[in-house]
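Researcher: I'd like a structural prediction for the single chain below. Treat it as a standalone chain; there are no partners to consider.
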Amino acid sequence: MTLKDIQTPVADELDAFRGYFRDAMRSDVRLLDLVVRYLLKRKGKQLRPTLVLLSAKASGTIAQPTFQGAALVELLHTATLVHDDVVDDADRRRSAFSINALWKNKIAVLLGDFLLSRGLLLALDAREYDLLHVVSDAVRRMSEGELLQIEKARKLDIDEETYYRIISDKTASLLSACTRCGAVSVRADHDTVERLSRFGEALGLAFQIRDDLFDFGGDDVGKPLGIDIQEKKMTLPLIVALRESSRADRRRIVKIVGKDRKTAEEVKTVTDFVRASGGLEVAQEHMHRHAESARAELAGLPPSDARDALDRLVTFTITRKR
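Model: Treating it as a single chain, here is the predicted structure.
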C-alpha cells in the first residue's frame, strides 16, 4: 500500500489543489519566483493536503474553503521548514539542497516570511477566520514544542510526560490542524470537527513514535540512523530504556548522549543499549495504542471511501519504512 493508493478518493481534488497552491505562491519579483519554483519542485508526497482533503470529504463536500485550508497549512508548514533549515544550518532537505544552502540565510528567512504572509492573506482575503485560527494555533504549539525540546536537550532530563508534550506540540498539532481544517472547511458540526481533530492528534503521535523508532533500527524499521542520538534528542525508546536500567548504565548512556560529538561506536553503544533494554518494544506498543485511538475516532464517522482511506493512512503511518 502506497500513499498514492490512499489518495485515490481525492486524486482529482489533489490535482486541482496543486494548481491552486502554485497560484497562491506566485510572485512578480523575479528572484522570489525563482526560489518558489525550486521549492515547488521539491514538494514531497503532500501528506498534509491529503489529510485536509480526506477529512473534508469524510465529513462533507469539498469546496473552495477546503483548498484554502489545505493551502494555508502547506504555506505555513513550508515556512517553518525553511526557517528550521536556517536555524539548524542544514544544507539538505529530503536529499536536495536547502534554500539557505543555495541562496544563503537572508533569502531563506525572507522566503519564509513571504510564505507566512501569503498564508495569512489567503485566509484573511477569503474571510476564513476559523481556518486561520486553527493553523495559527498549530504554529504556536510547534514553536513551543521546539523550544521545550531545546531547553530539555541541555539538561537531558526528559521524562515520558515531557516527551509527549513535546511531540504533541511539535508533530501532532499540525496533523490535527489538517484534519480539523478539513472538517471546518465543509462546515461540519461541532462533534465531527472535534472527532477529526482528535483523530489527527492521535495519528500525529503514532507518526512521531514511528520516526523515533527509525533511529534505533531493528527488523521492523531497518538500519539504525542515530540522528536523534547525535542531536541529543531524548525519544521514547531511549527514555523507556533508561527508566528500566541500573543507575550505572543510566549514567554511562546519558554521558554519551550528552556529548557534542559522538563516534559511530558510541552511537552504536546507545542503540544496542536501547534494543537490549526493551525500549523498542514498549515504544511500538505506544505507537499501536495511538493508532487504535485514531481508528476509534474514525468509527464515529459515516461510512465512505474517504473514511476508509483515512483508516488505511493509519496503517501506512505505522508501517512505513521511512
